[in-house]
Amino acid sequence: MEYVYAALLLHSAGKDITEEGIKKIVEASGAKVDDVRAKALVAALEGVDIAKVLAQAAVMPVAAAAPAAAAAAAPASKEEKEENKEAAEESGVEGLGALFG
Of 19, 40, 54, 80, whose CB count within 10 A is highest? Predict the structure, then answer.
């Protein structure tokens, strides 16, 4: 994860994302540098428009969180909870009846 953060830091500073740059940032953080990871990240980011990816990523969590927020905003009333509980109990009894004929 620190390698991705290093790449984002370089991008934010307007610098080229290079192996040397990533290595310097990871070393400055106190973590041990893995040359293979740094090289792989630079290769993976080649030709990627990071600004565009970040703009798309900023929009996605809002869209994904909308259904969850709507469900949380409309809690079931006490009557609905009791009805659901009764329905579950009835279906459980019906299931046992079908089991024994």
Answer: 19
* pLDDT tens, residue by residue, 18-38: 999 999 999 999 999 999 999
Which residue did the predictor score with more confidence, 54 or 72? 54
Residues 84, 76 contacting (CB under 8 angstroms): yes
Planar angle of CA 65, 67, 72, nearest 5 degrees? 90
- For 2, the token pair is 């620190």
Helix (DSSP H) and strand (DSSP E) numbers for the chain: 5, 0
Q: Does domain 2-100 have CATH number 2.60.40.1180?
A: no
* Range picked from 41-50, 54-63, 65-74 for highest mean pLDDT: 41-50
Contact 43, 63 (CB under 8 A): no
Q: Identify the residue whose tokens are 């630079």.
A: 42
Q: How far apart are CA 38 and CA 40, in angstroms?
A: 6
